[in-house]
Amino acid sequence: MAATASSYSITMRLYTAPDHGVVGAVATQIAASGGVVTAIDVTESRHDRLVVDVTCSASDASHSEELVAAVAGVEGVTVHKVSDRTFLLHLGGKISVNSKVPLRTRDDLSMAYTPGVGRVSMAIHDNPEDVRKLTIKGNSVAVVTDGSAVLGLGNIGPGAAMPVMEGKAALFKRFADIDAWPICLATQDTDEIVRAVEMIAPGFGGINLEDIAAPRCFEIERRLRESLDIPVFHDDQHGTAIVVLAALTNALRCVDKDLEAVRIVVSGAGAAGTAIVTLLLAAGAQDVVVVDRDGALCADDSSLSSAHTDLANATNPRRATGSLQEVLVDADVFIGVSAPNILDAEWIPTMAPKPVVFALANPDPEVDPAEAGKYAAVVASGRSDYPNQINNVLAFPGVFRGLLDAGAEDVTIDMLLRAAKAIADTVSAEELHPAFIIPSVFHPDVTKRVASAISGRES
């Protein structure tokens, strides 16, 4: 039975016969159908019926429907209403704007707004550098998307991307006390996106590019870094790369191997794969082979696109060719940021002894983590229901906290390397284990350590 997830959690309101034994029958039926009951509340008890709210988690949407049907089949039970808890959480949006100053009296208004605010505006006019201190610019980030590559859902557009960008903004606030704003642009034209971000940049201390498809995202980031005096960070690239390097650092400690000596296969030549490879090489990796749907990228292949040619020229020193299955032979590490179910668990034994497998495609990984765990020494995924979740939340809040605190104008490779080390070092020698190579996103020190590593200040 597939693992259940809180993201597929439902609450069923049931009308049942006035027999509390029915409640137990409902719980038994849910368990027998592969669901997990997380709460049962009898909200009303009358002589003719009980009203019962049952909350349970399922493995996916269709499994949720199966659980509802199973409960409806219990004698004496009527399913009155079903609520999807994830949708309920999103009603009305997940973020809001709150004033940091009291607005109770005429005095308050005269200072926060007119006429007092005019003095502050003129002070910024006379000393433009004061805008970071006297406005929210010094603690604000724009989360910018065109909706072209949202999670694993593809090109679903700016409106459909809004819940994800809201979630990102909420994470910024929760983990780094940064005020972030969802900016969902109704264009997928590179020039228009660049110009739109340039026009809103005066109000922000940093730009977080999010869910913009490759190769467009590379040019957008490059041009914005050249034209803006605030840091531009593409989380799908650099946030992912930071956390992957941190996790791999600790995974190699577990298997007693060195980054400089291992063979690494990266599946996926898009934004995330390119950034991961770039950071791995900067950290000292020597033997990296990138694989896309057509096989290994090799500098000898004249049919490659310009972006893939650049990637091939920087990697694959042995000029390996062939499919993923073929280049995986004798590899020490597999890192997948590509597509679901492209790696057969039976291939893992052909890798070098004590192999490391990172299957990071979302929402469905390249190989089932449980199956990979039968053969690999260390397994990581992007899923929260297995050990070693590679989650960008470990990186981007601390990265931007450090950038804003330092008043930085750009992001450097050296910063990314320091951030990865800070995350890896958060796991102590006593804690390090093949099932614990990366700290929890709720670890109280992660954001502070990453911010300190980025800014160069003591935490």
Percent of residues in helical segments?
25-40%
Q: Cα distance, first to last residue?
A: 45 Å
Q: Overall mean pLDDT score?
A: 94
- Main β-sheet: number of strands, strand sense, barrel status? 6 strands, mixed
How would you sum up the global shape? Answer: globular
The structural class is: alpha/beta
Q: What fraction strand?
A: 15-25%
User: What's the alpha carbon Rg, rounded to whole Å?
Assistant: 25 Å
- Report the total helices: 17
**If strands are numbered along the chain, what order do they take across the biggest sheet?**
11-10-9-12-13-14
Contiguous uncertain segments of 5+ residues: none
Number of strands: 14
What labels describe this entry?
459 residues; alpha/beta; 4-stranded antiparallel β-sheet; 17 helices; 14 strands; 39% helix; globular
Describe this structure in words.
Strand 9 (263-267), helix 11 and strand 10 (287-292) form a beta-alpha-beta unit. The strands form three sheets. Strands 11-10-9-12-13-14 form a six-stranded mixed beta sheet, with helices on one face. Strands 2-3-1-4 form a four-stranded antiparallel beta sheet. The protein has a four-stranded parallel beta sheet with strand order 6-5-7-8, with helices on both faces. It has helices spanning 21-32, 61-72, 85-90, 106-112, 116-126, 131-134, 157-176, 190-200, 216-227, 235-254, 271-283, 306-314, 324-327, 369-372, 396-406, 413-426, 446-455, and strands at 5-16, 36-45, 50-58, 77-84, 140-145, 179-184, 206-209, 232-234, 263-267, 287-292, 295-296, 333-336, 356-359, 378-381. Helices cover 39% and strands 18% of the residues. It has 17 helices and 14 strands. The longest helix has 20 residues, at 157-176. Helix 10 (235-254) crosses helix 11 and helix 15 packs across helix 17. The mean pLDDT is 94. By secondary structure, it is of the alpha/beta class. The two termini are 45 Å apart. Keywords: Metal-binding, Oxidoreductase.
